[in-house]
């Protein structure tokens, strides 16, 4: 798609929320609806691991244990992706930034490019619900559409609604054991970014315990307002 619906300015959005909050689910929907590219550092890191690049080799064990990959590696991967032409019209940052250092780096990268974040959406959830969200998660191997064993099943069991594919995959780190480590990393290093964006007047909170389509409605309202 060429440009987003708001052609006069890049629509750069940050999605904040713990693992399982629904960042990826909502980013994909907003990408389709508004023409803003989803940029998931988790997806980029998983690709690097699969390809066996130096960054992937360094990230692999940290990801498996539910820790955070080093700022240096993540910022380098993010910088490369952000330079691609499809990112010019706006990006939904999904899972980045996750530390204060990453947030500062993102502010600087965007400022250098003459752009900036228009809103940071915090998906507000209860930690206790995230184990079920994460252990029930699967993804279509063909098109990447996300599903959940209880909360988002395909219309026909075993067949992707979007592409008709029948192969689904689960992430190696989506186990009950890693969830507590990942939530701890979120609270220690990422949750403080809520204040970073509140201080810039960019923070918007959305109740992400609601059903997926209600969360989407809340997010769409934020995007429309931020870009009006
Ligand atoms: P994140 O990217 O924040 O880790 P995902 O978008 O992958 O989270 O969502 C985690 C799992 O929870 C997925 O299986 C997804 O289908 C499901 N899910 C997402 N949003 C909701 C919601 N509002 N209610 C119930 N389940 C949801
Ligand atoms: P989730 O939203 O379910 O936690 P992601 O796909 O965003 O999953 O991230 C998976 C893993 O990749 C994280 O647990 C972490 O190890 C690594 N990762 C992703 N993004 C970052 C980041 N911005 N900084 C550090 N590590 C990251
Ligand atoms: Zn599919």
Any overview of this molecule?
The protein is 46% helix and 15% strand. The protein has 228 residues and is an alpha/beta fold. A hairpin with a 5-residue loop joins strand 5 (137-140) and strand 6. Helix 1 crosses helix 9 (212-227) and helix 4 (71-82) packs parallel to helix 5. The chain is globular. The protein starts with 11 loop residues before the first strand and ends with a helix. 36% of the residues are buried. The mean pLDDT is 95. Bound molecules: adenosine-5'-diphosphate (2 copies) and zinc ion. Residues 140, 142-143, 145, 160, 162-163, 165 line the site of zinc ion.
Spatial extent as radius of gyration: 17 Å
Largest sheet: 5 strands, parallel
Order of SSEs, N→C?
EHEHHHEHEHEEEHHEH
Query: What is the spatial order of strands in the main beta sheet?
Result: 2-3-1-4-8
Give helix % range.
40-55%
Average pLDDT value?
95
Secondary structure layout plus pairing:
Blueprint: E1 12-16, H1 23-34, E2 37-40, H2 41-51, H3 54-65, H4 71-82, E3 91-94, H5 100-112, E4 117-124, H6 130-135, E5 137-140, E6 146-148, E7 168-169, H7 176-190, H8 193-199, E8 203-207, H9 212-227
Parallel strand pairs: 1-3, 1-4, 2-3, 4-8
Antiparallel strand pairs: 5-6, 5-7
Helix pairs in contact: 1-9, 2-3, 4-5
């Amino acid at each position: 798609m060429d440009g987003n619906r708001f052609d006069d300015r890049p629509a750069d959005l940050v999605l904040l929320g713990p693992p399982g909050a629904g960042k990826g689910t909502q980013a994909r929907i907003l990408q389709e609806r508004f023409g803003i590219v989803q940029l998931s550092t988790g997806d980029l890191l998983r690709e690097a691991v699969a390809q066996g690049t130096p960054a992937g080799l360094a990230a692999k064990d940290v990801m498996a244990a539910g820790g955070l990959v080093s700022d240096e590696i993540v910022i380098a991967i993010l910088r490369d992706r952000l330079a691609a032409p499809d990112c010019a019209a706006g990006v939904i940052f999904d899972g980045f930034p996750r530390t204060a250092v990453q947030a500062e780096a993102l502010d600087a990268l965007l400022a250098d490019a003459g752009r900036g974040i228009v809103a940071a959406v915090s998906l507000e959830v209860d930690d206790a619900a995230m184990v079920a969200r994460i252990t029930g998660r699967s993804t279509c191997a063909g098109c990447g559409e996300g599903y959940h064993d209880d909360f988002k099943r395909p219309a026909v069991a075993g067949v992707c609604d979007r592409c008709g594919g029948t192969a689904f995959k689960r992430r190696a780190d989506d186990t009950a054991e890693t969830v507590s480590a990942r939530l701890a990393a979120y609270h220690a290093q990422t949750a403080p970014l809520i204040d970073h964006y509140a201080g810039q007047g960019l923070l918007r909170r959305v109740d992400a315990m609601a059903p997926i389509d209600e969360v989407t409605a809340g997010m769409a309202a934020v995007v429309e307002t931020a870009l009006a």
